[in-house]
Amino acid sequence: MAFISMSLTAQQASNQKLAVVDTENLSLSNPNEALKIGFLLLKSSDSDQEKAKNNLLIGKVYFIKSDYTNALEYLFKIKHTQDVLSFENNCELNLIKALIMRDLFLDKEFKSFLDLSKIYQAKIVDTYKKNYYKTYIELIELEVLLKSKISNKTYELLLRLYRQINTLQTIDKTILLKRYWQIKAKQTSVDNSLEESNTYYQKLIELSSQKPLDYFSHSYALIGYADNLFREEKYALAIDMLKKSLSLSEKLDNQYLQQVSSKNLVMNYLVLNDKANYVYYNNLYLSKLTQIENTEQEAVNTAFNLISQEKEELSAQRNKSNINKLVVTIGVSIMLLIVVFFYFNKTIAEKKRVTELLNYLEVTRNNMVNRYTEKKEAQKRSLIPTETEQIILNKLKKFEQTKKFTNKEMSLANLASQFDTNTKYLSEIINKHYNVNFNTYINKLRVNYIVEKLKTDANYMNYKISYLAEDAGFSSHSSFATVFKSITGIAPVTFIDLLKEDTATNTIKNIEYEE
Question: What is the CATH code for 2-212?
Fold first, then answer.
């Protein structure tokens, strides 16, 4: 009986593993169907380990859809990761988190999660898997390096990684080769070696067309290939590829790929002076752009909230562990235990207090809108005339000196209309010179407006948070609180309390804003 029970358990584990692999493969061509299977697997999970693996699976599927809010929700549901996941799974978990942070332009968090993935990669016992994840991490680091500059060192690294990839087995080799061809195609395109770049995009298309089908990489390759064709003035071929990309991205339900495909179609039809198709795809592009701006802001807020919550939980666990050790160590004397207990709690309170004060001091120095931030990614060729770009920049500067951004109805289309320009130009210029999207740009202006009011008008410190939210132009108390904390690092209530104490004690004076 015991033998039969063990056999059944082993069979169930094997079936679970096969189901997970099949779902991962399906997610590359039909993520919505893969999600249905993932939810069924999660519902039938019997152990914490199974739940953790299925949450990881669902998070990966949402990542493929570029639905970062839901991806983060499921990835952060995995608690006590070292207890429920292998080193291999932990490495993968932190890699996905890192890639999401990179796409949301959260560079500090990207590096933090990438470093965590390296720690777990180093602990993997299986040499083959250890080398696989080492190569995967190096490819991601190479992507970051290529966005800054090209050097002989970079070319040497590309060659070494290609050799490493060719030592792997078929499935893993295909996964990494697709990422490798993406990098090579983009790098040679930036170098204006368009024919060579097209060769790499074709390799990526061929790999993506093999089973399991990978619509994400296929769509990405078609977009890149079409961009090269546009530069070669082969507009008809570019349009054909972009329509295929749009079709694949719709099957993936990936808003980002749909937005890029429709945007590039607009550029091609504009050059061809095809007004009907230009209007159709421009409307589609603007619709997707609005959706992406909203979902990106939601994802950024979700990321900050989940990371903050996880840090608080880890801190609480450490404190609990320290207290337990303390009790064991000094249990001989109840009196000594009480003394140490109060001292311990006092120290924590003092550290927390110091941290809050330091955060407060940093708020006014570091969290104003950073004008003309250097773009971290290599800029794509801009179609905006230099004179037009400078006019819009000057208008933005004047706009920041007004209170128009506190209007709840303020939107990209609204401001573009005020500036006598189009949403595409305005969005691109804000992204290029401020390194943020339109929503984040407006939210930073609103938060800094309230910070100034709190510092210069004592009455504001006595107003309710709901009034401050309304005065700044936010739609609700909760959205104001979330955005305020994501930008400043502390909640508005905490900030006001510190400001009141500062005013009362008069210990901090003349803090300058560095705009």
Answer: 1.25.40.10
